[in-house]
């Protein structure tokens, strides 16, 4: 490799250091410093991915309610099923009824989301999951179509959800959306923002994710004091941001350091003056959950977006413990209550800020789980049910095809593990289109999207 090529490689990698991991937040923030041209879009939009790590149990989230489905549901998980009488208060009455009089209810712990659904601002995705192309049970059994690699594997399916590629993916579809739209932002480094650490979802081919905590941007250690010495801290900052040398590597590193420090100051200053809202984010019922605090920070970041020159932002928040092989009956209701509290408070805050129609929030998870109970839990599955909410959402209804519930029925691969009839690719393409990605660029964001052009649901699901 020539010296010029080595320099180019270093400079390119310097802009991608944010994938180094959560253990090096300062390095991640050093990387996220690319300044873009002045914003040209006339409006603001934000997408917020809420990732439920572990694989959310679909059957105890969106619960079958009609007599036929409830009978199958309760028979397959006698120790875990909600009593039908407990579901009457969260029964969904969609604007478009499902075939065969099928009905669902939200888990009782999700009751706070029911008014959003009834107001037409929350949509329910039926049987969504990772696919390469539309797949039937016969095709699955004959192995006649490509399938996502390592089905039922946490790491690979988390990655496939976020990136359309298994573990080790270089970029995710949120980051690839950022690639296309970051030039319209006054601070391109704030296009892809992660309040949960690091995720391939927000890594672009050029765009990098900027990590913050629930308390705000991450400061350089010893920013104001180094071993008790302010002078030493000042010297360290000078060394980090120095670009007085003549070597390309030294100049690049100095520019990175200087811009990272300036970006920290800009973001901290903006957040210090963020609008105070009256909506209360409840304390989590489970002390291990920080989802509400993460979404509260997203709301603050959105509230100062105009001050920072932002027009398009993609956010990632997450919570875990959804791998409920056992203890589902005790743990899952707590997880869902935390989820409902956080989503409702965030939605209400966007309404209070006057930006609800500009912010779309959606849930995601590794995979669904098996319908058949495993004693007091459920094992890994495939397809699942998810929600999208926001003022721009065409809600109050279901999207997709409701599955026939059974153990080894026509819609599953055994034990009620659903074969998805809606692809994450279609979910992503619909959100990207709303966000401003052109039809010609959709395949850049979602490489397999053209595989669905002839499917019954089409490329754009129409929920937003």
Automatic annotation (TrEMBL):
Stored InterPro entries: DUF1501, TAT_signal
Pfam family membership, one: DUF1501
Identification of the protein by name: DUF1501 domain-containing protein
């Amino acid at each position: 490799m020539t010296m010029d090529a080595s320099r180019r490689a270093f400079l390119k990698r310097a802009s991608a250091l944010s994938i180094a991991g959560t253990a090096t937040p300062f390095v991640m923030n050093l990387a996220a410093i690319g300044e873009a041209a002045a914003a040209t879009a006339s409006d603001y939009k934000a997408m917020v991915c809420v990732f439920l790590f572990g694989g959310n149990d679909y059957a105890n989230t969106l619960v079958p309610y009609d007599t036929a489905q409830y009978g199958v549901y309760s028979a397959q998980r006698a120790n875990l099923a909600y009593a039908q009488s407990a579901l009457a208060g969260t029964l969904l009455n969609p604007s478009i009824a499902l075939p065969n009089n099928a009905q669902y209810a939200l888990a009782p712990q999700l009751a706070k989301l029911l008014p959003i659904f009834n107001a037409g601002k929350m949509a329910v995705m039926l049987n969504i999951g990772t696919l390469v192309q539309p797949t039937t049970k016969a095709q699955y059994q004959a192995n006649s179509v490509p399938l996502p690699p390592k089905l039922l594997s946490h790491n690979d399916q988390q990655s496939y959800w976020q990136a359309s590629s298994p573990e080790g993916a270089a970029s995710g579809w949120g980051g690839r959306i950022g690639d296309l739209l970051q030039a319209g932002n006054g601070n391109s480094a704030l296009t892809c923002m992660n309040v949960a650490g690091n995720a391939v979802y927000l890594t672009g081919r050029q765009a990098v994710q900027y990590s913050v905590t629930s308390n705000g941007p991450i400061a350089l250690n010893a920013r104001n004091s180094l071993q008790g010495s302010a002078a030493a801290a000042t010297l360290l900052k000078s060394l980090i941001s120095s670009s007085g040398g003549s070597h390309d590597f030294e100049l690049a590193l100095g520019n990175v350091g200087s811009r990272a420090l300036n970006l920290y100051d800009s973001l901290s200053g903006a957040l210090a003056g963020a609008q105070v809202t009256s909506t209360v984010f409840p304390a989590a019922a489970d002390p291990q959950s920080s989802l509400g605090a993460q979404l509260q920070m997203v709301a603050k970041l959105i509230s100062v977006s105009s001050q920072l020159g932002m027009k398009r932002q993609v956010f990632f928040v997450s919570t875990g413990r959804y791998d409920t092989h056992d203890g589902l009956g005790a743990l899952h209701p707590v997880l869902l209550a935390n989820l409902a509290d956080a989503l409702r408070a965030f939605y209400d805050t966007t309404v209070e800020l006057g930006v609800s129609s500009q912010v779309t929030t959606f849930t995601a998870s590794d995979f669904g789980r098996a319908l058949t109970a495993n004693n007091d839990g459920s094992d890994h599955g495939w397809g699942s049910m998810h929600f999208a909410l926001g003022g721009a959402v065409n809600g109050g209804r279901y999207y997709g095809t409701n599955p026939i519930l059974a153990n080894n029925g026509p819609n599953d691969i055994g034990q009620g593990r659903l074969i998805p009839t809606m692809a994450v690719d279609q979910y992503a393409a619909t959100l990207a289109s709303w966000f401003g990605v052109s039809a010609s660029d959709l395949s850049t964001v979602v490489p397999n999207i053209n595989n669905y052009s002839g499917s019954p649901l089409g490329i754009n699901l129409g929920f937003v």
